[in-house]
Each structure stands twice: as structure tokens, then as C-alpha cells.
Amino acid sequence: MNSALQYAPSPYSSFMHETKVDLGNGIELHVEVGGNPDHPALLLIMGLGAQMLYWPDFFCKSLIDQGYRIIRYDNRDIGLSSKVRYKGPRLNTLKLMSRFAIGLENQGAPYNLYDMADDAALLIDRMGLEQVDVIGASMGGMIAQILSARYPDKVKKLGLLFTSNNQPLLPPPFPKQLFSLIGKPESSDEDGIVNHSLKIFKIIGSPGYVNHLEAIQTARKLYHRSYYPAGVLQQFLAILCTGSLLKLDKQIDKQTLVVHGSKDRLLPPSHGKAVAKAISGAKFELIDGMGHDIPPHFIPYLSGLFADHFKS
């Protein structure tokens, strides 16, 4: 690990330490690490509009307990990482979405997922890590696919959670789920934002496993930590202007485990199956009853699955 980085205790998790990492490309990432520095490093990449705290502490801790050094970070444009101020023309999101769905190329976003994968590669270098295991969730899984294909020397094994390769003609997200994610809150005060987050948790989360009280506490914590809706939109545009990862998947030669929830209505399970089919030798695991989230109920099984995969 790079000894020049300065770490402070995380204000959110007693077993994590935080630091800022300047990537040298104009982006500074906010990073948390936990676990024994001598243990293998496991990089966690989060999804669209999601701060690193969406990786539940219980999930991180159970991987630490199974012998991993955990690194989680805020992607560019979210949380406490650099924000990308874009002065270009406004893009027509609906037009981009319809082109994306049938596999046509889009351009014009402030950045795309290739840039975000470059961020991850630079982070691995700047932290002085040679190779890491990676788990990417949702959009983070797309970033992880690009990272593994373009920087094979930096990735040992790959874990993908409720993600997609965005190949043309996959069943689209259910409209309610998609628009909950990119829709606007009814009001822009704290309560309006928290209610909006709560609605998202319920709409995309695992049916019957969303704890109302915990969800409110999480939403408030995230709101106070950082609220930057422009970043969520820009990350969504990044996905639309990246398009299909099918060709890249065929280049990935890492042992890969793809995990998906049977009740995921944001990215239906066929998205995960398409990724597993495209990556040579990838294993696919469907978790019954899980949605597009990581509720405590599924964490012992999930963390065990990934830990076994990386150790095998």
C-alpha cells in the first residue's frame, strides 16, 4: 500500500479509515479502507448515483472477517469525490435511452464508463496495489467489466452483482423502477429528499426485506454526507453514452462470478445471465427473493459466495 496516503478514522464505520486519493487526471476520489493491510485487497465499485456507503457495513465487515482488505470509494460526481462541472449542451435523455435500447451509439456525455474505469485503474496504482479482486454492483459492475477487459494486469478475479452488459434488446428496466431512480423528488428540502430515497429503496429493493426505519436513517445519513443530483444524471448519461459491453466481455479472461436477485426489477435477471454467458467460463448464481439491493438477510450468503469465489 502507498504509505504516503494519510488516513483518518471513518466517521461512518468504526472499522474503516478514510483518505482522499488524487488520481492525477483532475479527479480526486474519497476512499475508505478496512481490514488487515497484509490481506488480499478487494475493491468495491458502487452503482449509479450511489455513495460508497451503499456497500453495507455488515457486508464489508463479513468480507474483512473472511480475510480481505476492503476498499470502497465514491465514484466521480457522487459523495465526497470530485464533481464534474459540465458546460456543454443539454442532452435529450429520452432520445439517448431509445437509441441505447436498440444498440445505437450515443455521444456527448461529459464522460463515460470508460473514464470511470480509468479512475478505478488509477486508484489501484495510486494506492500502491498491484492486483485486486473486484466486486462491482449495478453500474459499478459495468465499470468492473471494462476494468477487467482493459486492465487485465490489475484484476485478479471478478465478482459482479446485479449488473448488465447493456447488449441490445435485453428486457428494459421496469419503468417504475427506472424512473424512481432518475426522477425528481417532490421537494428539495431534507424531508423531500429523504422521502424520495425511501421510495427508491422500496421500489428497487428486495420485497419484504426493506426495513423502513433503517432505510430512513440511511437516507438521512447519505443526504447529510452529500447531495448532488446533477452527478446522478451525469452518471446515467455516462451509461447511455457507453453502450454495449458485449465485445469487452469476450476479452475478459478472469474467473468471474455473476450474482443476481430473482426479484430485481431494475435490471431483470436476464441481464446478469447475459453477462455470465458473454464472459468465458463465468458462473451465474441467482438469489431467490433478492432485489436490486443488499439487505442484511442476504449478506451472510452473499459475502460467503464472493469470498469462496475469490479464494477458489
Describe the structure.
This protein is an alpha/beta fold and 312 residues long. It has a single domain, classed as Rossmann fold (3-Layer(aba) Sandwich). 38% of the residues lie in helices and 16% in strands. The protein contains eleven helices and nine strands. It has helices spanning 57-65, 93-101, 113-126, 139-150, 175-182, 190-204, 212-225, 229-240, 246-249, 269-278, 299-311, and strands at residues 8-9, 16-22, 28-34, 41-45, 69-73, 132-137, 155-161, 256-261, 283-287. The protein has a nine-stranded mixed sheet with strand order 1-2-3-5-4-6-7-8-9, with helices on both faces. Strand 1 (8-9) and strand 2 (16-22) form a beta hairpin. Helix 1 crosses helix 11 (299-311), helix 3 packs across helix 4 (139-150) and helix 5 (175-182) runs antiparallel to helix 6 (190-204). The protein is globular. The mean pLDDT is 94. Keywords: Hydrolase. This is Alpha/beta hydrolase. Residues 40-169 form the AB hydrolase-1 domain.
